[in-house]
Amino acid sequence: MSTLIEGLFNGISIGSVLLIAALGLAIVFGLMGVINLAHGELMMLGAYSTFVVQNIFKSFGDPWFDFYIIVAIPVAFIVSAVVGLILERGAIRFLYGRPLETLLATWGVSLILQQFVRSVNWLLMISLGIFSLLFFGGIQVVKKRADWERIKSKTLTLLIFLSTGIAIAFYSLLSKNSVLTKAWFSARNVDVTAPKWLRGGTTALGFQTPYVRLFIIALTILCLIGVYWFLQRSTWGLKIRAVTQNRTMSSCLGIPTAKVDALTFALGSGLAGIAGCAVSLLGSVGPNTGQNYIVDTFMVVVVGGVGNLLGTVLAALGIGILNYLVGSGTLALFLTSFSAPQSLIDFFLFFATSSMAKVMVFALIITFLQIKPAGLFPQKGRTAEL
């Protein structure tokens, strides 16, 4: 029984990681209908933000280092939220109602972000800054002309070519400077060290419970409470739910739907950044970190029911517990202690590896969706009809 309880706790801790990763996706995919394949890369940016904050605090000395995680969480949220906002304003807003195009666009963005992390250096950031200054500054200047609408398309094309050309020329001019071209992260994985108060663990019910896992569970609960309060109790949360139910009517009532879309996407992206901060405490961080979670998080959202937070919680915990109990062999050991049929024990022993456990969970999810294709808690009302 102690082994089963330990397995349940480890499963809940895995489920909490899935849940905190799926929270942002549940908002973006569930409430907006956007298939965001770059969600994993937004997690990756949150993890790298944690790494950078850790290194900054490490330079301050030992007393300050133990508090870096408190600063890293909001920094990870802000960085991922800003990138998500740029993504929504630059691409996603033109693709609402076109899921296939959204899928392809966000997949391309995910590849760009992965390569960006591998290649980013001071020279690249300065060149991007020059491009942004020339392009967006030029737009603001030309917008003051009375004939802006007539010359808009030609002006944008000209500004893109000029800004890109000047930025590339600047990059080529200084490309031999070894200080400016040294990669910040490169393709190698980097390690995030947990503060002293998160190392080790406590013994309860006969097994060790790591402080890091308890911290992630507590962080997940806080994020859940915050998201629920924001969606159900705040003014902007009410606007988000209104736009979700009926975009046209909300617009007629004066709700700024474009701002609601941007805020929703930024919120979901920021939550992905917090998930990346939590994931960085469990292992090394690399350009492919987000790819390890994107499939599982989509499974959580789909099984729970599109846009339903309670369904997302239950699905994340269920998938996490099942993955661990089967993959670690705990379920087979538990059945052995109760003298279960040998064929049943052999069946679960066959799946008693992490990869085979995923295969079994996939099969169970496919079977479940045949029975309830809309998930545990399907949408009701006007949204479900659209």
Properties at a glance:
18 helices, two-stranded antiparallel ribbon, 2 strands, 2 domains, ABC transporter involved in vitamin B12 uptake, BtuC, single chain
Describe the structure.
It contains 18 helices and 2 strands. It has 386 residues and is mostly helical. The chain folds into 2 domains: 322 residues, Orthogonal Bundle (ABC transporter involved in vitamin B12 uptake, BtuC); 62 residues. Helix 2 runs parallel beside helix 5. The C terminus is likely disordered.
- Structural class determined from secondary elements: mainly alpha
Return the average pLDDT rounded to an integer. 83
The CATH architecture name of the largest domain reads: Orthogonal Bundle
β-strand number: 2
For the record, give the distance between the C-alpha atoms at the N and C termini, rounded to a whole number.
48 Å
Strand fraction:
under 5%
Topology overview:
Elements lengths: L1 H31 L6 H22 L1 H4 L2 H23 L8 H21 L2 H21 L5 H26 L4 H4 L19 E4 L2 E4 H23 L1 H11 L1 H6 L4 H24 L13 H11 L4 H19 L2 H8 L4 H9 L3 H18 L10 H4 L1
Antiparallel strand pairs: 1-2
Brief account:
This protein is an all-alpha fold and 386 residues long.
